[in-house]
Amino acid sequence: MASTEALSGRRPPTALPRLRVPAWALVLPPVAALGLVFLHPLALVLWQSVSPEGGGHGFSAYADVFAQAAFRDALRNTVLIAAGSTAGALVLGFALALVIAFVPFPGGRAVGRFVDVFLSFPSFLITLALLFVYGSAGMANGVWTGVTGAASGPFDFLHTPWGVLLAEITYFTPFVMRPLLGAFSRIETAQIEVAASLGAKAPRIVRQVILPEALPALAAGGSLVLVMCLNEFGIVLFTGAKGVTTLPVLVYGKAILDGDYTGACVVAVVNIVLSLALYGLYRMLTTRMDGVRRARA
Amino acid sequence: MLVHSPRARRAVQAAFFALFLPVFALPFLVIVTASLATGWSGAFPSGATLDHYRAVARGDALDALVTSVLTALAASAAALVTGTWAALAARGTRARRVVGVLFVLPVAVPSVVVGLALLVAFSEPPFLLNGTPAIVVLAHAILVTAFAYQSVAAALDRLDPACEQAAASLGASPLRVLVQVRLPLLLPSLSAAAGLCFALSMGELSATMMLYPPDWLPLPVKVFAATDRGALFPGAALAVVLMVTTLLALTAVSRIRTRAAYR
């Protein structure tokens, strides 16, 4: 298998001038590989979701899953946590990026570097850290019991949706900051100086000069984060919260813990549809943003 | 400069650090500290120890690290070859849009679902991969190919066509233009893509949890297993090992990148 791949990998470029292979034909090998290992399996998931256990084909598995309270809870949790995390990440990311870009301070570049490194770490590290900070025997509760002498501390939200929300806002805020920092670096400082010299105060400059320029980046970053929140698995798994189930966790539970592949496929299809719809929106916003940028240039 | 009065500027900066440090720096500080502590039941950890790292060095955690690195290397290589090929071949053809959408699709599909799809597709002959390390590598490769493709496609858009046109007009064959002109010019973004792919694959948990066979346990799964049974401190040590390995790889790659950019 490997040797035939290597052969076919070498042949097209050398054969090009003699055989007159059309240029687009060279696209076929990687697309075929993607089709075999990604698109075809996805199609099989769709097929399995309409092939219930008893045989035949139909939507009975969908009716079963939709009737389960666990599924409806998971769907609600997923959407609410994703919307909340995205809103939180947008507000926090905008404020932090604003300071980095427009109120320069020594070490600002290092902070920007740190944000880049942050993006390449896995999400579950945040939950792991929060366990030490807010866990039942963690820092915050330790300080509280030390100061007040109480038997246990007041911080007990890690295993609730609020814990997941806090972890997701922490992890996804840098994903909003990076496109914003890029957009801010393209704003002419002269524009801000003019607005300030005409008497506009900082809040007004932010609202009327910076925000309109940053809106496309904000929209693009926000929808990307929304999709990533809908698909987030590690953070929810690590909180170990029985009360908080999201769609990806439900897929894992049904497939691996219950062995119910048809049910897992149904939940997976719902999750894909939700994410793809939002991702389509994201692509639309980013291509429009590119178009605006090109038109200006 | 948005804030002109020095006092207001200092206030804004203080507010920034009051927000930034606890939210973003504290998590890493806490994990590193916990990995060196025997216990933590107050404001500060109690007892310094290297036991957790000694356990990593002699236990099966070392196997997990090797497993993760091998998986990440194999997946990044496969993703780079596929992504670069697709970006190069689709450039300037009508297929470009379609190929772009197809290759970025794995980002939008939940990783858990990618894992489920591979389980459904490759659990029966003739493609029986379930239970082998290959299925984990395959999942990682699929998930990171999108980033390799995007990175190379963006670099190709910025590439000055004059160099390759000059080479072609001097009689260089398409293969020679590719190997001697285009790929060297792409080297900086290729190495950046390699670093990103490696880092993402090192930390991949969602699809791996669906697929890993008992004899191929990557590091994130090991971290989860440790914290799940309540062994938070050894888990923190494993997480530090994971972060340090990722950082080392990223640093090495950025070295290559600066050297390539100077040439």
Helical stretch count of chain B? Answer: 11
- The ordered H/E elements of chain A are HHHHHHHHHHHHH
The CATH topology of chain A corresponds to: MetI-like fold
Mean pLDDT of chain B: 86
Element pattern of chain B in H and E: HEEHHHHHHHHHH
CATH class of chain A: Mainly Alpha
Which key terms come to mind for this protein?
A: 297 residues, MetI-like fold, flat, disordered N terminus, B: 263 residues, 2 domains, 11 helices, globular
Question: Can you describe this structure in just a few lines?
Answer:
Chain A is mostly helical and 297 residues long. In chain A, 78% of the residues lie in helices and 0% in strands.
Q: Can you tell me about this structure?
A:
The complex is a heterodimer of chains A (297) and B (263). Chain A is 78% helix and 0% strand. By secondary structure, chain A is mainly α. In chain A, helix 5 (108-119) crosses helix 8 (161-185) and helix 12 runs antiparallel to helix 13. The mean pLDDT of chain B is 86. Chain B has 263 residues and is mainly α. Chain B has a two-stranded antiparallel ribbon with strand order 1-2. Classes of the chains: A mainly alpha (297), B mainly alpha (263).
List the topology elements.
The complex is a heterodimer of chains A (297) and B (263).
Chain A: H1 2-19, H2 28-49, H3 60-67, H4 69-102, H5 108-119, H6 124-134, H7 139-148, H8 161-185, H9 189-197, H10 202-230, H11 234-239, H12 247-257, H13 261-296
Helix pairs in contact in A: 2-13, 3-13, 4-8, 4-10, 5-8, 8-10, 9-10, 10-13, 12-13
Chain B: H1 6-35, E1 37-39, E2 46-48, H2 51-58, H3 61-90, H4 96-108, H5 111-121, H6 133-158, H7 162-169, H8 174-202, H9 206-211, H10 219-228, H11 232-262
